[in-house]
Specification:
- The complex is a heterodimer of chains A (111) and B (113).
- Chain A is an all-beta fold.
- Helix content of chain A is 0%, strand content 56%.
- Chain A is built from no helices and eleven strands.
- In chain A, the strands form two sheets. In chain A, strands 2, 4, 5, 9, 10 and 11 form a six-stranded mixed sheet that branches.
- In chain A, strand 6 and strand 7 form a beta hairpin.
- The N and C termini of chain A lie far apart (37 Å).
- Helix content of chain B is 0%, strand content 50%.
- Chain B is globular.
- The chains are: A mainly beta (111), B mainly beta (113).
- Chains A and B meet through strand 4, strand 5, strand 9 and strand 10 of A and strand 5 and strand 10 of B.
Chain lengths: 111, 113
């Protein structure tokens, strides 16, 4: 079953606003990954996190690997229209090889 | 490099038909996997392979078969299609199991009538 809880499921914001989304689990993760999926495309990796407490930025995107290793967040600052899409968190659980995905956060931006 | 390629892009099947979804990568990645994506469910792992000749089941393997005779190719077979298998299927590859970036293909949209 689903081992990652991602929230919110959807967001409707104005252009220029900041965005925050997160993933939590009852399991301990070794890695956290954040992906963006555009309509009709496969997911594309945005940020990868490999150590507890790690804070990594990619342009206007910032993500952190939670200290407890059970959660992660993604922030997008000063949103622009091309940020529209579905954002997925994913991670590898301690002791497992497989990648598990959250349910996704659908971001809609009003110009 | 072409990255991860998938064929076909779209397919319509009748219940009971069989077909193979093709996946190929030219990055010499050891780890390959198949996911299905359904609304509100995120991506769910069907089968994966950690190298040529080795495959294993993921979260939702029933109704699907895979083989990995070469490093480059990882086909997914639907043995007897069912409407519940209507979905978007993504193939992905990564150089090291569970740690490195997963590169996704563009997806195959399958409709089973």
């Amino acid at each position: 079953g689903q081992q990652l809880n991602q929230s919110p499921q959807s967001m409707f914001i104005q252009e220029g606003e900041d965005v925050s989304m997160n993933c939590t689990s009852s399991s301990i993760f070794n890695t956290w990954l954040w992906y963006k999926q555009d309509p009709g495309e496969g997911p594309v990796l945005l940020i990868a996190l490999y150590k507890a407490g790690e804070l990594t930025s990619n342009g206007r995107l910032t993500a952190q690997f939670g200290i407890t290793r059970k959660d992660s967040f993604l922030n997008i600052s000063a949103s622009i229209p091309s940020d529209v899409g579905i954002y997925f968190c994913a991670g590898t659980i301690q002791g497992a090889q497989k990648l598990v995905f959250g349910q996704g956060t659908r971001l809609t931006i009003n110009p | 490099n072409a990255g991860v390629t998938q064929t076909p892009k779209f397919q319509v099947l009748k219940t009971g038909q069989s077909m193979t979804l093709q996946c190929a990568q030219d990055m010499n990645h050891e780890y390959m996997s198949w996911y299905r994506q359904d609304p509100g469910m995120g991506l769910r792992l069907i089968h994966y392979s950690v190298g040529a000749g080795i495959t294993d089941q993921g979260e939702v393997p029933n109704g699907y078969n895979v083989s990995r005779s070469t490093t480059e190719d990882f086909p997914l077979r639907l043995l007897s299609a069912a409407p519940s298998q209507t979905s978007v299927y993504f193939c992905a590859s990564t150089p090291t199991s569970g740690r490195e970036t997963q590169y996704f293909g563009p997806g195959t949209r399958l409709l089973v009538l």
